[in-house]
Design brief:
The complex is a heterodimer of chains A (338) and B (443).
Chain A lengths: L1 H21 L30 E2 L1 E5 L8 E3 L4 E7 L9 E2 L2 E2 L4 E14 L4 E4 L10 E4 L5 E17 L6 E17 L5 E8 L4 E8 L10 E8 L4 E12 L4 E2 L7 E3 L4 E9 L10 E6 L6 E6 L3 E3 L9 E8 L5 E10 L2
Parallel strand pairs in A: 1-11, 3-11, 16-23, 17-23
Antiparallel strand pairs in A: 2-4, 4-9, 5-6, 7-8, 7-10, 10-11, 12-13, 12-18, 13-14, 14-15, 18-21, 19-20, 19-22, 22-23
Chain B lengths: L1 H26 L2 H15 L8 E2 L2 E4 L20 E4 L3 E7 L15 E2 L4 E9 L5 E8 L4 E5 L4 E14 L26 H4 L11 E15 L5 E8 L6 H18 L16 E6 L14 E8 L9 E8 L1 E4 L4 E7 L9 E4 L4 E8 L8 E3 L1 E6 L4 E2 L24 E8 L5 E11 L12
The chains are: A mainly beta (338), B alpha+beta (443).
Chain lengths: 338, 443
């Protein structure tokens, strides 16, 4: 008899241990140093409601797969395929039957483009006239690691255990596709120029209109400072084609200095993704357009014009390329005053 | 036999400990499980299947302003969180996607980095569709904010994280740093080359895993409606009924266009009619917490002082709780000798009309409602029009000179659908002035 009691006790201990070990670890402490995003969260990650998660697949409008690499500023029409738009709601949630389920509202849909390199996302654009499961996604940020995600939720009503009562939960459906976004925007570099014992000024291009597609991209070049007779204002040269042949005409604006002036030059601006610093060049060149023909030192912070054998048509140039190979060369005329 | 029983007992206890330890390894220490799996992966290099999406939980944090399920007589089974406008609420959400390790997403998987978390607030439009009000990429699983307008909202949380199943990612060039600029992928593009380069699809070791959950919130109105009251005198052959309709039309147009705010603050622009404006106030006065809510009272025109001098004056008025249980509020404008609004001053023997309109933030001040208003005696008896306009032949102001004459009051009451009230009760003085008021229209 005693033997039987011992055996029963041992069996109970064993069974209890197995059951407790199989329960989900809801009470596990959160390490906020490693998961700072959980600060203030006092909720279990395991749903207790009947809240089904439905599969969702994303593909192109023409039914093809989303490409692994897409191009900056080129719109994609994406389609989400999910049962959340079906007439009949799901009947099960995590293997549990949902009693008499019925839809209680329209589906709410959100699309994002995530740049994982910055861990930042952007809303996808909405174009009226598209079906609820479609979205125009314009990846405006080049990245080597990105995703397009789609999240949908639809309110679901089902019968509560009490007769005549009902409960509400949400059917959810989400998915993502990993993509890389190719940079097609040339750098937007300008120069800041100071004349020793004289005026200073700066010029810089701004992509305008932003995110323009189809190519070519265009930019406005802004000039500011006393060197350009633009104190407390900006002189704008509009609509230059953004690329390797950006020429500012002398009639528009010029760097006007004495022939023996000493210039201090600094590059400003950058690229919308990654500037290739090894290819960055600036200085004075002969004429404008094509490959710059340097006159004097390249990438020198200080240029003493008195030491140069200056050509008839000198320009200040900045030549920049990004790591994708997009190139910008901007020429600004250099005029001499007495 | 006894020894065998002891042996059986000891064996059973050891066995149960072994089960506990092994089960704990599986459930409470997924990191260790991952390490093991990862070790295994390095030797076998078998990819782990990572799901596209996982479950999420989401709820409003308990708060005294989370109203009961049957708040304001609502259906307790409606399934929406009852909230009130202009109060700070906190929400939190959780998912296995936000855990330190990816063991529960897929055994042997790892996370590549932090999750990307976005809080979406959508409002239900008249067609039953949800329109985005805000979308905030906080990368935090807790969130807080206010609802600045009544309505039905859906708070959604979208989470994404990159999981790694151990398989090597494809080397698809985004910006190949080794290539010359002219030859690199983006250096010399043609339209044909731009989209879907090589037709490759996004399959690789790293894979985005998503989760989302939603919560419905019914935000209740606790702001009393805005109210405009206009008084206009007439004389001679003016058709007062037509004038009254014209006045109402003008108010309908302007109260919506100005979102309840006075259409002008220049006294000389109120020559046609005098106005009382009661509205939620300037931008910094709007959307205050219920217990701090004020209204801005503005009076404009010639009928608000006994001299008939045109003026524009404005001040704030505090609100009060109308009903604690339903959280409704009231703005009451009481005019009188000791108040900023002394009353309305009309001339004897000069017919006048008035009209009142209201707009409410419950529908974004999108349409108007005509407000019940009347003139009554001190005992609450309504004074009728004399034909198509109001007309008083005997003055009653100053009161000390006309103690035998009845006191009159102008009263109006605007109530929104939620029961918030804006009320006005101010004296109506009949002054004995035969000279025309400055700026009066029908002189």
């Amino acid at each position: 008899m005693k033997k039987i009691k011992i055996a029963i006790f041992a069996a109970v201990v064993m069974f209890g241990s197995m059951v407790s070990a199989q329960e989900p670890p809801t009470g596990a402490p959160v390490n906020l140093e490693k998961t700072p995003w959980l600060k203030g969260v006092e909720l279990s990650p395991y749903p207790t409601d009947l809240t089904p998660t439905l599969p969702l697949s994303i593909y192109l409008e023409n039914g093809e797969a989303v490409p692994a690499t897409v191009t900056e500023d080129v719109p994609l029409v994406l389609v989400a395929d999910t049962a959340i738009f079906d007439n009949d709601p799901p009947t099960h949630a995590n293997d549990q039957e949902i009693p008499n389920p019925r839809w209680d509202a329209s589906a709410a849909v959100s699309w994002y483009f995530i740049d994982w390199e910055k861990n930042q996302n952007f809303n996808a654009s909405t174009t009226p006239g598209l079906a609820a499961n479609q979205m125009v996604v314009i990846p405006t940020t080049p990245t080597g690691k990105g995703s397009v995600t789609c999240h949908m939720a639809r309110r679901l009503r089902y019968d509560a255990p009490e007769p005549g009562r009902s409960k509400v939960s949400y059917a959810n459906s989400s998915s993502g596709r990993d993509i890389k976004v190719l940079d097609i925007t040339p750098p937007l570099c300008g120069l800041e120029i100071s004349v020793e014992k004289g005026k200073s000024g700066s010029f810089w291009p701004v992509e305008y209109p932003p995110d323009k597609y189809p190519l070519p991209k265009t930019a406005n070049v802004y000039f500011s400072g006393g060197l350009f007779d633009a104190v407390d204002k900006e002189v704008v040269v509009e609509a230059l084609e953004l690329g390797p042949n950006m020429i500012v005409a002398a009639a528009q604006v010029a760097v006007k200095v004495a022939p023996d002036a000493k210039l201090t030059i600094r590059v400003i601006g950058g690229d919308n993704y990654k500037l290739d610093n090894t290819k960055l060049k600036y200085g004075i060149c002969n004429a404008a357009g094509g490959e710059p023909i340097p006159v004097g030192p390249i990438n020198e912070e200080t240029i003493d014009l008195a030491t140069l054998d200056l050509p008839d048509n000198p320009h200040i140039f900045v030549d920049a390329a990004d790591t994708t190979g997009n190139r910008q060369v901007l020429f600004v005329p250099l005029k001499f005053i007495k | 036999m006894k020894k065998f029983g002891v042996f059986l007992f000891v064996f059973a206890v050891f066995f149960s400990f072994a089960v506990v330890i092994s089960a704990q390894d599986e459930t409470t220490d997924p990191a260790a499980a991952n390490d093991e799996a990862a070790t295994e992966d390095t030797t076998t290099a078998e990819p782990v299947e990572i799901p596209s999406s996982v479950d999420m939980t989401l709820e409003m944090k308990p708060d005294k302003f989370v109203m009961p399920a049957n708040f304001r007589g609502g259906d307790p089974d409606r399934g929406l969180v009852n909230a009130i406008e202009d109060v700070f609420y906190e929400q939190h959400e959780h998912s296995i996607l936000y855990k330190e390790d990816a063991g529960e997403v897929a055994e042997g998987a790892t996370f590549e980095g932090d999750p990307n978390i976005t809080w979406d607030t959508k409002v239900k439009d008249a067609d039953g569709n949800f329109q985005t009000v805000s979308s905030v990429n906080t990368n935090m699983a807790g969130n807080g904010g206010k609802f600045f307008a009544p309505g039905e909202y859906q708070i959604g949380n979208g989470g994404a994280r990159q999981g790694d199943g151990g398989e090597g990612a494809e080397d698809v060039t985004t910006g190949n740093e080794d290539e010359d600029g002219e030859e690199a992928a983006g250096g010399d593009q043609t339209d044909e080359a731009l989209v879907g380069e090589n037709g490759e699809t996004a399959e690789g070791g790293a894979k985005v895993v998503t989760a989302n959950q939603a919560m419905g919130v019914l935000v209740h109105d606790v702001t009393p409606p805005d109210m405009w009251i206009a008084f206009q005198e007439g004389a001679g052959n003016i058709d007062m009924a037509a004038t009254e309709q014209e006045l109402k039309n003008k108010m309908v147009e302007k109260i919506v266009a100005n979102l309840g705010r006075p259409f002008s603050q220049k006294a000389d622009e109120f020559e046609d009619a005098s106005y009382v404006f009661v509205d939620e106030g300037t931008n910094d006065e709007r959307n205050l917490e219920p217990w701090k809510k004020t209204a801005r009272l503005s009076v404009a025109g010639a009928l608000f002082n006994d001299r008939g001098a045109p003026k524009f004056e404005t001040k704030t008025v505090e609100s009060k709780t109308l009903n604690e249980e339903t959280a409704t509020r009231q703005i009451h404008i009481a005019g009188g000798d000791n108040d900023a609004l002394k009353g309305v001053f009309v001339r004897r023997n000069v017919p006048f009309i008035f009209a009142a309109m209201s707009v409410d933030n419950g529908n974004n001040r999108g349409n108007t409602a005509e407000v019940a208003c009347r003139i009554e005696t001190a005992d609450g008896k309504e004074v009728e029009k004399d034909g198509k306009a109001y007309l008083f032949r005997v003055p009653n102001y100053p009161r000390e000179d006309y103690k035998d004459q009845p006191e009159y009051f102008f009263v109006s009451k605007a109530m929104d659908k939620s029961g918030n009230l804006t009320t006005v009760r101010m004296p109506l003085h009949i002054v004995n002035i035969q000279a025309a008021f400055e700026g009066g229209r029908n002189q």
